[in-house]
Amino acid sequence: xxxxxxxxxxxxxxxxxxxGYLAPHRWLEHPRIRQAAAMVTVALxxxxxAVQTLGSEHQLVLDARVPALxxxxxxxWRKTSFIVVVVAAGAVAALLRMII
Length: 100
Fold this sequence. Notes:
2 strands, 100 residues, mainly alpha, 4% strand
């Protein structure tokens, strides 16, 4: 990546943040905007989890992280304590890596 592209990306990010600060407060209070913002947050976090779990450079990787993510998802769905979710998912990944 060139420095020009990097600086242009930084400028676009800065302008997007600046537009958010300059937006009228009444626009942000609109129910549709609030709902869209909530959905975008969930979508971005889900995409990040998927990429970090299933991706490795330019290929799809199915290893111990996938069952660990499944265990974490089930435990979160059952409203288990977050620390229990983290420990259980880590234990599943560690056991599978030890076996495989």
